[in-house]
Amino acid sequence: MLLLLACMDYNPVPHTDGTSPTDTDVLVDTGEVKVDTGDTEDTGETVETGIIETGDPLDTEDTGQDTGEPVEDTCKFVVTLDSAGHLQASPLTENGLEPPVSLGVASQHAVIADVDDDGELEVIAWENNALVQLDGDPCAGLAMASTPLNRAFIPRAVGDLDNDGVDDILGWTDQGQGVVGLGGSSGFTWIDVDVQAALSEYTSIAAYHLRDVTGDGNADLVVASYDGPAGEDTWLSLFLGNGDGTLGQRKALGGVDEPSNGADLGDVDGDGLVDLVFGLDDDGDAGQMYIALGTASGLGPIQELVDLQPNAESGTNAAGQGTLRLVDLDADADLDLLVLHRPNGGDFQTTVLSQLPYGVGFGNPVQEMDTSALGTKLTLAVP
Ligand SMILES: [Ca+2]
Ligand SMILES: [Ca+2]
Ligand SMILES: [Ca+2]
Ligand SMILES: [Ca+2]
Q1: Which residue has the higher pLDDT, 26 or 339?
Q2: Which of 63, 102, 203, 207 is the most exposed place for a label (fewest CB within 10 A)?
Q3: Cα of 167 to ligand 1 centre, how many Å?
Q4: Which is nearest to 7 in space by CA: 215, 300, 220?
């Protein structure tokens, strides 16, 4: 995903004036000895873009066990909901997901992104009918400090919609008014966007990550909606990003004949093209997930991906609910599928972390990590 993002962010600009490329351009290693410009601080970004660690004696933090894995000094975490209905952050370390730290915020809606471009992740949550920003370091066991944002909408998706390299957020109000918050070091810039055509009166979810599915370099919005509580069809919508934070008109993407409560965009098969994973219905046939693989210019046909509850009935108002996110939890540069799932009613008792078996057809996911410490409610935010 990181490599993909690097490609997406890189917009070649011809140097027609004859000046040399800036230091933000892609660097080609010409074998020069002088590769370091004195920037000794690890920003947490450059180490992931292909710099090979060669046992540099200046790397005093290295304990000799370095296997070439990226050095992560940014606190990464997953946000879920605790039994009391408060958001909690589970730090994501090389050992997996650590026990959660309560964020003290009563909310079912949150996204995680670095919206102020300081290299640290924030949580943007919906609390008491207001938008709040949580800053801090849950990886150090610390609670996060809450700052109110002067807007009122539920945050639903994250990505870089204006190609400035800074994360943005997108959501909509209960009345269907879409809002984009363009991130920046001096705070958000708010833009109203029209997503009404994608929204149902019952349930509509945004694919959590805003990614480019059309190949034009601009991140896009995908929305999955269904119209009622009992086995309704899911219909998918695409809004093309214009690259400046605004969105084009709705395009229909087809759908499936059951509801969906989770959706995300990411390159799950490693071909460099963004794919859509969605599903995990509200009613009946609990646990079915679908995938539409990315093509050079859009999304391909919808295929069945995984059914976590293959024996459950379909199309009835039975138990079964869940949500899903694509995130590289084990830092191996492959996206993993994180699922909160409730196959039999009650609280969410099953959390499945799976590595998608792409390349050999789609089969049952492999549970890679004990995620039982995660929440038991339908809330799931990832970096
Ligand atoms: Ca930040
Ligand atoms: Ca941005
Ligand atoms: Ca696009
Ligand atoms: Ca792909």
Answers
A1: 339
A2: 63
A3: 9
A4: 215
